[in-house]
Amino acid sequence: MKVVIASDSFKGSCSSLEVAEAIERGIRKIDQDAEIVKIPVADGGEGTVDTLVIGTGGKYEEVEVVGPLGKKIKTKYGILEGNIAVIEMAAASGLPLLKEEERNPMVTTTYGTGEMIKAAMEKGCRKIFIGIGGSATNDGGVGMAQALGVSFKDQEGKEIGYGGENLINIYDIDLSNINSSLGETDIVIMSDVSNPLCGPNGAAHVYGPQKGATPEIVKLLDANLGYYAKVIKEKIGKDILDIPGAGAAGGLGAGLMAFCNASLCSGIEKILDLTNIEGHLADADLVITGEGQIDSQTVYGKVPVGVAKRAVKYDIPVIAIVGSVGEGASDVYAYGVDAIMDIINKPMPLREAVQNAPTLIEDTAENVMRILKLRNQIASNV
């Protein structure tokens, strides 16, 4: 029996690879001879760099950058075969870098993300994939652009400060010192977010609250992003206001499109291509995927559905092992997921579930294999 394991991480508890290893342990309890292929997967958010470095045999590069609150931090990005860089904006400008009380999109910056892009270009990388999930920012990518040489001046000719609160102070945009390597570099945004920059479905309204924005701050940030888009159109002739995906990562999508000529692609689809998952599916008997919570949002570019769509091509059954089942989870059945198994085996606090996730995942995988074994015994007796 050949089993392909391709699960997302369980945020806060297990990386994608740790999930796969736990599932493998559960399988081995029932079928020690199974051929198991573990493919770490992500959707452009947390774990994207690890997924691609581990999945393709790449390497890590460490770099010191400005964190979301302006303090220096050490982080890393990946370099894949062909000198292709892969960056996670969350590793420099993400919510995981902040304590809950530190979240404040009025002051957080994407400057460190720009520094990672610059570092990759200095290594000679001329193709860069950037996953933009998990941002702590709402600065429209201004910090990122500043790190790459773009100057945003106020009416007195001074450089504006960090954060979404300062977008309203932009009077002029100076591209004269923009990093020359950008013109030779293909930057691809890995994201399935299609939000525009502003409005009720925009960056501030949809994602601002989780970054620490009150309703009043959300309105201010949304207005500032609208003003920012207006200045970009007036000064450099690019209209990014209503482009799908411009609102991703607090408007970083807009900044990357405006100043780096970046293109947008589906995060999960690109990662599945880069890890060559279909090369392992042709002769597989079972696919096990999963994520921390499966719900109605899973059909919008999340890992389980992305994996299931590929498995459907080869008529392979797909089981999703998940941390929890949310509202609308059954929607995934229309996309190739055949069954959902959650790991919670008794009432327990969230903290206990997170701490014991590897064991719970292992036990669930064992149960999956026991059910399959029983099914096969029933079939042989018919």
Explained architecture:
With about 375 residues, the chain is α/β, with parallel strands linked by helices. The chain has two domains: about 120 residues, Rossmann fold, CATH 3.40.50.10350; about 220 residues, Glycerate kinase, domain 2 (Alpha-Beta Complex), CATH 3.90.1510.10. It is about 35% helix and about 20% strand. It is built from 13 helices and 13 strands. A six-stranded mixed β-sheet has the order 3-4-5-6-9-10, with helices on both faces. A five-stranded parallel β-sheet has the order 2-1-11-12-13. It has a two-stranded antiparallel sheet with strand order 7-8. Strand 11, helix 11 and strand 12 form a beta-alpha-beta unit. It is elongated, with a radius of gyration of 22 Å. The two termini are about 20 Å apart. About 50% of the residues are buried.
Summarize, please.
The protein has 382 residues and is of the alpha/beta class.
Q: In CATH, what is the class of the largest domain?
A: Alpha Beta
Question: Roughly how many Å is the radius of gyration?
Answer: 22 Å
Major sheet attributes: 6 strands, mixed
Low-confidence stretches: none
Shape annotation: elongated
- The name of the CATH architecture of the largest domain is Alpha-Beta Complex
Total E-strand runs: 13
How many helical stretches?
13
DSSP helix fraction: 25-40%
CATH fold label of the largest domain: Glycerate kinase, domain 2
